[in-house]
Each structure stands twice: as C-alpha cells, then as structure tokens.
Amino acid sequence: MTETTEARPTRGRSTGKIVVDEPPLPRRTRRPIDGLRLLFVLTAMTALAALAVVAERTLTGLTADLADFNRTVPRGPVDVVAFASQLASLILPPALVFILMVRGRMRTTVELLVAGALASVAAALVSTWLAGPAPERLHDTFVPSADGVAGTAVPAMTTLLVAIVTVVSRLALKRIRQITAFAVAGSFAVWLFRGDVTVGGMLLSLGIGWAVGLLVRLVSGQPSLAPNGHKVAAVLRANGYDVSSLNADPVDKYRRYIADSLQGPLGVLVLDRDNDGAGAVVRAADQIRTREEVLPRQMVTMRSAVNQITLQSLAVSRAGARTPKLRNVLRIGSDAAAIVYDHVPGRVLANLTADEVTDAMLEDLWRQLGRLRRNQVAHRRISGRTILVSETGKVWLLDPSGGEVAAPELAIRADLAQALVGCALVVGVDRTIDTAIRVLGQDVVAGAIPLLQPVALARSTRRDLKGRRDVLSKLRDGLVSGTGREPDQPVRLQRLRPLSLVTGVGAVFAVYLVGTQLSDVSFSQLWSQIDWRWLFVAVVLMFTSFVGATLALMGFVPERVGFWRIMGAQISLGFLKLVAPATVGIVAINIRVLTKAGVAAPLAAASVAANQVGNVAITFPTIGILGLVTGSSAAPDIDPSVNTLVIVLVVLAAAAVLALIPPVRTRLRALWSDFAERGLPRLLDVLSNPRKLLVALGGILLQSASLILCFYTCLLAVGGAANIAALAVVQLVGNTLGMAVPTPGGLGAVEAALTAGVSTLGVGATTAVTAVLVFRLVSFWLPILPGWVLWTQMQKRDLL
C-alpha cells in the first residue's frame, strides 16, 4: 500500500511529501510475551499442586503460623485494612468499566467483563473440586477450616480483580493498578490472619486470575504498538534525515525499510514491544539441547534487542569486516525504536547462481571471516541469506545481532563451518574448499571439519540442506583430502537429546512411584519370611533368559557369530538398561556387537530389526492364546475408572494428531521403508532356513518362558500362589509395557502394571507388591553389576 504524507518543517529544513510503501499493519496483535507469561503461570500452578502433594505440611504449617499471628496483632488495624480492602474490591470493577466506556474503549470493556466472569467461574469450579472429589492432600492444603467448617479454597473476588487488571495492564491506569494491589494484598492479609484462606489458596487465586487475564489477552489480542511507516518517516525527518520515500523490505522476521534521502539510501530496522518474548521457548529448548557456543544470541525484549544489535554492528565494523554502517538509534515513542544503517544494494548469496559468484567474491568472504577471527568476534548467523554480494561485487555480512565479542574458539570455528556449507550449497564443494584454503590456510579450515553437522548450522541453512544431505559428507571428505588432516571426531554439540530429557523425567516419576510402593513393605518381615530356595531358582531362570535372548538374536544372523560374544552383550544390557530406555539400549547394543563381530552395519541393523519383529510376532499371539486358555485378560475384574479411560483417549488422540503432522508421517514412512528394504529380507532368509528358524523361535520362547517362570518362583518365594498361565499373561503384558515406556528398564510402569495384574489373580495386595518388587530385584537390579563388568571388559577388548 502506497501513501503520501505531508512532512512538517523540522529544524529549519525544507521539507516535502514522503511516499510510504508498506503493507497495512494489523490493528491488534497477540504478543509472544503474554504466551510466555501464561506458560510460566501454568508451570507455577503445577509446581504448587506438586508441592501440596509431596510437601503438604510445609504449606499447611505456614497457614497455621500466620493464623496464630493474628492473636498478637491488634484488631483495630486489621479491621481498618479489612474494611478498606473490601471497599476497594467492590468499587474497582464498576469504576474500571465506567473509565473504559468514557474513553470509548468498548472492546476492552467487553474483554474486562469476559475476564471477570471467566475468573469467577474458574475460582468457583476449582473451589468445588477441591472441597469435593480432590485428593485428600490437595484438600488439606488449599481448603481452609475454621471451627470444623470448611471455607472457600479460592476467593472469587481477588481472582476477578487480578484477571481484570491483567486485561487493562497496558493502559495508562497507574492509580487503578495501585488500588488493586492494595485491595488484593489487604484482603489476603486479613483472610490469612483470620484463617479464612490458606497460603496455597491465595497463590492459586493469584495464578488463576493472572492466567485468565492473559488468556483473554491472547485470544482477543491487544492494540498494536508497532509504528507505521509515516511515524517512522516523521522520526527520521525530525532527526535530520531528509527522507523522500520509505519502502518496506520484507527480507526476514524484522520490519525493515529502505529510505531514499539526501544523505543516501538508508536501511531502517524497526523494533517494537509487540514482539517481546518471540522465540523465547524455542531458544530455551535449544539451550537445553545444544551447547551455547553455536547458538545465536536471542533477544527477548525490545530493549535487549536494540542493545545487542547495536553492539554487534559496531564490533563487526571495528574488526574490519564489511557490514552496513550503523548511523543512529532513534526512539519512536515509548514502545518502539528504529536502527538506521547505510543501505547496501545487492543480492544475498542464496539467491545467486554458481556462475554469478566468482572466486574473487569467495576469497573476499574468507578475508572478512579472517578479520572476525583475528579480533575474536563471532557472527553465529552466517548463511546464504546473511552474506550479501553488492552491486560492485564486494561481500558484506548482514545481521550480526546473534554474535558476541571475545568469542570462544568453538563459536569462531562454527562461523567458518556455517560459511563453508552456505557457499557449498551455491557454488559447489570444490570451489568452496579451494578458495577457503587459499585465503585462510589448511590449519584454520581443518578446524571446521568436526563442526560440519546440522546442529551447528543456521536454521535457514538446515532448511536448504533438506534433500541435499550429501553436501555435508562431500564437504567433509573434500576438506579431509584438501587439508591432509585425519578426520577428527565430530564435536559433541548436543547437551541433551529430547529422548534423554523424557527418560530423565520418567525416571524421576518412576523412582517416586516405586518409593511409594516400597513404603508399604516391611523389609525385616520380608527377609524372615522369604523362601530362599525359590529365590535361588528365580535367579537361575533370570540368567537363563539371557541364553534365550542370545539364541533369538543368533537365529536372525546368517553370518557366523560367536555365542559367548552375543551372550556377553545380552548380560551387559542389564547395566545399560539403567541408563537408557529398554528398546533403545537393546537395539543399539545388538547392532554394535554384530558390527564388531564383522557383520556389515546395514545387515546388522536388518538382523536386529527382524529380531524385534519376531519378538512382537510371537509375544502378542502368545498373550492372546494364554488369555483365551485361562479365560483372563490379565485383569478380568478391573472396572476401568473414568480417569483411566480419559488417559487412554488422550493418548490415542495425541497419537492421531501426531500422525497428521507431515514430518511425523514422513519419519514413520522412512522407518517402514527401511525395515521393508533391510529387515524384511532378513526375516525371509530366516523363514527359508529351518535351522535358523528353529534357533530364533526357540530363543524367543526360552527367553519368555524363563522370565515367566522367574516371576512365578518369585511369587512362590514370598508365599503367594496363582495360576501360572494367567500369571504368564500378566508378565508378558508388563514386559511389553516396559519395552514401550521411555524410562530405564520401564521403571515405575512395569511395577505398577505387574502389581495391578497380579492383584486380579486372587493374590493379596501386600503379597502382590512384594512379589513384584522381588521379581524386579532379580530381573532388573541384580544383573546391573555383572552387566557393568562385561560392558567395561568387552569395550576394552573392542568386542562391543
């Protein structure tokens, strides 16, 4: 949209019309910072609920101490504060509505009323739930009790006040906010002294009110704070820039303009508070998963962005590298700022063809990076979109805002790796390597080889690499050949993988779950009553299961592999299950032991995949057959609760939603294609070889039977008894669940599933818990020590 505005005379300069060409700005926006705050509030309330469960006495004790303090405080001041806060609470909502209507803010008035109604309803619903079906610990923590009469857990009035003030917090209503703070703080102080509210209820009221207010702001949006092009042009004129036109330049996520002026073409970067908090969650996730040295700096607020961009622009210029010259930083009102640069006409490297990029341009790029390297300045966002080739053929570095000064060596090497990949995508591997070595030397260029991995690259470069993954391997091989250096191991840039994070969280939950089960067991009584003969038999059967696992894997490997080598790997899994999910550890170790034994890696992966499919193909029919034979499904008398059904439905719905996401479907298709290409032929090879088929089936059945009998003997050892066929169903289901749950060895989930299953077979609850814990002690904890010994010894001998 092109508009013309009449500029006012400024500082005695002659002025004329300013032509502004920009798309229309949205009138209302949803600010990322509100989403970030809402996430924080929800996390805090979840932590409060968890604290109420695991540390109930902390909150209830604090509430009791404050109530006792009421005896030493004179009643006069308390009554005055109570009257003033209640009066303010009653007057504030209608006063706010009146002020907003006088100002003509009808939409904000509606938002305020909606927020107030939602906050009141939410407070009432939560109070009703806490007073009724909520767990006892939550009830005791949040519901006040005076003279044996339960009070209201979440005060509705304070919740309403917090919600409506959150909705109007961006307006110039400073006195209103101060009165609201007094009303809320005074009400809570009086109620705590009188015992009419708990500390937990107070915090929950604040959280619900804040969350509702933020939710209304996110759904409805707020008036945009972004200045339009006319305001930007007026500020430029007011600061001495004779601007005649201003054109939007949509090159990235920021608002950029190109201004024509008597001082020459200018680049104008506009920042405003509408984007505060953008990318903060992604940045936090990246910081958890990836080392800080290769991540670009993230600016959460407008002020931090202005400071970071300005600092880095000056640092890159002082280092001698070409980047558009910073002219000025201008304030546009109180909620926006403009950073003014010299505009450099040209095209970014990603938009050029190989023929358009000369070797002189590439060498110029390496010289710019060499200057940054000598001055220890990191860019951290180098890609084909931040390398500009001007109309005169010179190379300029754009957007240095993510970098830093006095940068670590790893960050500087990552810059070079990013530039190498960005150039190789455009001009090819050979020209990129030749020009880089010619300018920077072999030693410097070789330092980038370990960093040629996707996690070290800019997001735009990773997108460009999709479908061209061979570029990284060709670049790595070419650098090894060109520099004459032996390839180093890739630098470990990932701190934590998503699966490891899920595993850690699951392990904490599992330890808590198992701990609650152990609290019901008397170990002294168990020690005196256990039948050690059956326990010895259980240990023997547990180690027999390793023999079955060995035979099961060997049956799917046509090549000759030593029995004891495979056996050692299966026992070492007893240790590795402690640090990784069962399925992940089994697959990784089995592939590794086969490749170390001389089996080609693709064939080893195919054999392990076929082994996994064989286990599934035998286990599930066995469960079904045993269930029919015993007339049991491992839980014949269980009437699923509503919560259980809800959880199942949520899991199924989440799986369905994930299946609708294109990257997930692509990954699933890739896994199936990989199995169809490698695992299926191996499976057919086994089916066509009677001897191998017999070994594989015998091994799988021996492994399953050994674990079933181990579980049965553990039940006998603690004085219990059950139908062995029904118990087999319970054990197979529990073992299958343990393979699926992302906790070490299925910890927590297996114990819960086995205990619930055994309890349905007529075994007492205490006996069931004891038998399951003894079985897990034998099958999970006991093999850890021999597994660790074999793991270390096989690694030393390069067998694993």
What does this structure look like?
Keywords: Cell membrane, Membrane, Transmembrane, Transmembrane helix. It is a multi-pass membrane protein. This is Flippase-like domain-containing protein. There is one protein chain. It is built from 30 helices and 16 strands. A hairpin with a 3-residue loop joins strand 10 (326-332) and strand 11. The strands form 5 sheets. Strands 1-2-7-8-9-11-10 form a 7-stranded mixed β-sheet, with helices on both faces. Helix content is 63%, strand content 8%. It folds into 4 domains: 2-25 and 225-342, no CATH class; 28-222, no CATH class; 359-483, Transferase(Phosphotransferase), domain 1 (Orthogonal Bundle), CATH 1.10.510; 498-796, no CATH class. By secondary structure, it is α+β, with helices and mostly antiparallel strands.
- Helix/sheet category: alpha+beta
Whole-number total of structural domains? 4
Shape: flat
The percent range for helix content is: 55-70%
- The parts where pLDDT drops under 50 for at least 5 residues are 9-14, 632-648
Distance from N terminus to C terminus (CA atoms, Å) equals 66 Å
Beta-strand percentage?
5-15%
Largest sheet: 7 strands, mixed
Tally of separate helices: 30
Q: In angstroms, what is the radius of gyration?
A: 34 Å
